[in-house]
Design goal:
The chain starts with a strand and ends with a helix. It is an alpha/beta fold. It has an eleven-stranded mixed β-sheet with strand order 1-8-2-3-7-4-6-5-9-10-11, with helices on both faces. The chain has ten helices and 15 strands. The chain has two domains: 217 residues, DHBP synthase (Alpha-Beta Complex); 85 residues, no CATH class.
Length: 322
């Protein structure tokens, strides 16, 4: 794939970017913090492309970018403290972790299967693109996983060139560090990541103490728990056969020995497409999360490409629980 670098100020830049996003493609976009690798946050296959392009080894939650509080309210429950923070810092470098609204259109792959969603209203063209698309943009930093976050378009091109069709060049980022991430509570703010908005600014704007995460607050930060949001039943990985009454999560066209004995079967991708499997993973786990389902067998999934992230999430789902 050839990657085009286009000035964000070009007359047709926004139109072309929105057309690609609507088609499920990735676009590199400037924000005031760092450059983001954007996709439609409601499209599971598009979100899977983010993890694929970045080579991200885990399905960590992604920040959803919105133009304003009105769109945010369609995705999450906005309490009084969150509304106060939005009034003070949006658009700007502040992300809030909020409870998912019932019926929220954000795909579970963007939330990593959590009951919360991370939302930010960025400055500049990123918010305008979300408004024009009419849907939130999932947009982690536009760099290969583990590399330095990019603050100019050239860095995005060097790191991800050939993995996305378009990068919008908006010049150097004004803030240059990632957004601050907070979990608003009724009587305090839990600071999950330091960033473009300081602790003292948060305290002044709300009159609330700003504390570090402790105990169960850590579940809202990416990758904190070995086992989280797993189904209630035991999960058996790399299953090459199925015991009577087990529920089966299959992959690919080849049958699993004994699958006719399975209580139910979900195939993440009958054709063996890892992107399709990633997009359906959390729905499959959620579909088998019921008290009466005590045993789930998962067929082997390749470790290559997105398979690494899929297997990481499955290991977490299968980890022993106290």
């Amino acid at each position: 794939m050839k990657t085009e670098l286009l000035s964000a100020d070009a007359p047709d830049a926004a139109r072309r970017a929105v057309a690609l996003l609507a088609a499920g493609e990735l676009v590199g976009i400037p924000t005031e913090t760092v450059y983001g690798l954007a996709a439609d946050a409601t499209d599971g296959a598009a979100v899977a492309r983010i993890f694929e392009a970045k080579g991200r080894p885990r399905f960590n939650p992604l920040i959803c970018h919105v133009p304003d509080l009105a769109m945010a309210a369609t995705l999450a429950e906005i309490g009084p403290v969150a509304a106060m923070l939005a009034e003070a810092f949006w658009p700007g470098p502040l992300t809030m972790v909020l409870p998912l609204k019932e019926g929220s259109p954000v795909h579970p792959l963007a939330t990593a299967g959590l009951a919360t969603v991370a939302i930010r209203a960025p400055q500049g063209i990123a918010g305008r693109l979300a408004a024009a698309l009419g849907r939130p943009l999932a947009a982690p930093s536009a760099n290969p996983s583990g590399r330095v976050s990019p603050t100019n378009a050239g860095q995005v091109l060097r790191g991800l060139g050939g993995r996305l069709p378009l990068i919008l060049d908006g010049g150097p980022c004004e803030v240059g560090v990632e957004s601050t991430i907070v979990l608003p509570e009724a009587d305090r703010l839990v600071l999950l990541r330091a960033g473009g908005v300081g602790r003292a600014e948060l305290a002044r704007a709300t009159g609330l103490p700003v504390v570090d995460p402790a105990g169960d607050a850590a579940i809202n930060a990416p990758g904190q728990l070995t086992s989280h949001y797993a189904p209630s039943g035991r999960v058996r990985l790399d299953a090459t056969d199925v015991a009577p009454g087990e529920y089966l999560i299959a992959f690919g066209p080849a049958p699993v020995a004994g699958q006719d004995r399975a209580a139910a079967i979900v195939n993440l991708s009958p054709s063996g497409d890892l992107r399709e499997a990633a997009a359906g993973l959390f729905a499959a786990l959620a579909g088998f999360d019921a008290p009466e389902i005590t045993a789930i067998a998962v067929a082997p999934i390749p470790q290559s490409g997105l398979g690494e992230a899929i297997n990481d999430r499955l290991r977490r789902a299968a980890a022993p629980r106290g």
